[in-house]
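Subject: for your reference before the review

Hello V.,

The reviewers asked for a structural picture of the protein, and I figured it would be easier to keep everything in one thread rather than splitting it across files. Below is the amino acid sequence we used in the manuscript, unchanged from the supplementary table.
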Amino acid sequence: MGHQGAKTKEISFTENAGDVTVKVYGVSVEIHPDGSILAYTNGEVKRISTIANDDTSAKPLFTTPTEARLDLNVLSQLKEPQPKIGDKMADRTIFAGVSPDTGTAMYTTAADEPLSCTFKQAADQAAVLNVSDAFGHHDWRVPSKAELNVLFNNRAAISNFTSGSYWSSSQDYGRNAWGQRFNDGIQTSNNKDYLSSVRCVR
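And here is what came back from the structure prediction:
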């Protein structure tokens, strides 16, 4: 049964209602008899209430748009907000934003690789980071064309970029591959022997 409050609508079910799915405003929430929920949303989860002994106490939870399984018994342990673009992580990498290719968090180094390089040498630089387990990770790569544009758009927060050209891992036709000028954001198709900077991501 439902009743209208001052700002919210509450819907109550009997205890033997089984699994319940609520869909509203583009959000779908599955509620299970064991007290767990499965939430699907394209928005940001800003506030979630835990319910125990008819006492409602709201716990803040900040997440990026995602599918998340939230156990009401452990919500109180989730206190840390998601990082902001430019934040330095515990492993000394920099949160760079979300990869348009994978939809997952993307991290970068605090500075460019030391030397300007060709397209092949840029890939070699990423391989060196992986062999050396740089910052405790071995999944470094040269950013794709789309990911490189994220770095450009977030360059002020990430910092330590030059105003020159950077390689992406995205190839164009023949002997060309895509790069991006960081003085104006223009993406250009360059000969693979052209010397550019590289900032690896993971």
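For the response letter, the relevant points are probably these. The chain has two domains: 2-77, 94-191. DSSP finds three helices and 13 strands in the chain.

Happy to draft the paragraph if you're swamped.

O.
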